[in-house]
Amino acid sequence: MSDDTVAPSRSAAETRPSDAPARSLPQRLRGAALAAVVMVVLLALPFYVDAFWLRIGLFAMAAAVGALGLTILFGAAGQLSLGHAFFVAVGTYGYAFLSGDDHGEVKGLGLPPLAAAVLATLLAGACGLLFSPIAGRLRGIYLGIASLGLVFLGHHLLLNLRPVTGGYDGRNVEPFSLGGFTFSDASDLLLFRVPFGAVESLWYLFLGVTVVATLVARNVLRGRPGRAFRLMRDSEVGAAAMGVRVGRTKAAAFVLSSMYAGVGGVLTALAFQRAVPDYFDLHLSIDFLAMIILGGLGSTSGALVGATFVIALPIVLSRYADALPLVVGPGQDGLEASIAAQFVYGALVVVVMLTQPGGLRAMVTAVRDRRRPAAAPRTSTPTPVPARRTP
């Protein structure tokens, strides 16, 4: 994204947005210390946590990267998209086709996994660029309905392009390899007496990609592009008056969001090790919207928390279905864990929108402000006014 999205006027480039107040030095130090502690904990998890929880983390990080793209598009730029699942599918099947080999009717190009991942991301961005002229002319619910057609079109293509997608049965995904190391269970790597198979090694790969994606998204939202997005979200007429090229800015937001979805799709392929068309339906797009609404629109940390909650809840409920009331496992008579999870975070979305539209981020900020002692009122010495002489 180039810097000519916003004209070089000082008022547009230098004004700090109201939703990103300046933080004091102690607050920044506390934030950096908390981030360092969280990172240390995440780096140590593969040595102490069961593979089941690590696999949930892989699914959550793959979804979080896609949610970051929708945070930029909808949370910052105000462009509603219900077609996010389509771009995730492009990244998933793009990687599977580019890195896979020929297996019967299913074809593949056999490219190196790293090159396949990069090309799949660019392919998702190219699809977003092709849709950007429509996105540049629409906004709000009209753009959401137009992007909804991408999901149905994509699902039809996934079912019928058998040489590329494998049809209804899907296709296998080649394991990722980098520098001669393959991220699979065939690896004989042993660290501190802990065997590092596919889940343990992919954990660090996913963690690195998620951290980089989060930092890039945060810098975009805090820089000139982010200010242009927010100006356009608040008022397109006002943004144009401030020097924002609205059409180009909409296209840039859609392309960037599509590339994030493509990266999330590549991670989804590596986490599942198989691509199935039924996963990339309208329900997945609704899940992405739930992630960013629960976490807080326009918040990168909120997207991470929301993605973790939405992805982990049905899996955890399914695992402990026998110990929970009113919830049954898959295939049993009663309320399945996946349906129960939809009820839970659907109700939470309604509660959040009614009570705290800013999501979990705003809730945490409100609790922190309440616990903070009130500052003593400042007493200022009145300036003496000289007495007026009477004639």
TrEMBL record:
Composition bias type Low complexity, residue spans: 374-391
Keyword match Chloroplast: no
CDD domains hit by this protein: TM_PBP1_LivM_like
Keywords: Cell membrane, Membrane, Transmembrane, Transmembrane helix
InterPro entries membership: ABC_transp_permease (IPR001851), LivM-like (IPR043428)
Transmembrane intervals: 31-49, 55-74, 81-98, 110-131, 140-159, 202-221, 251-272, 292-317
Name of the protein in its database record: Branched-chain amino acid ABC transporter permease
Organism placement in taxonomy: Bacteria, Bacillati, Actinomycetota, Actinomycetes, Streptosporangiales
Subcellular location: Cell membrane
Organism this protein belongs to: Actinomadura vinacea
Region Disordered, residue ranges: 1-23, 371-391
Membrane topology field: Multi-pass membrane protein
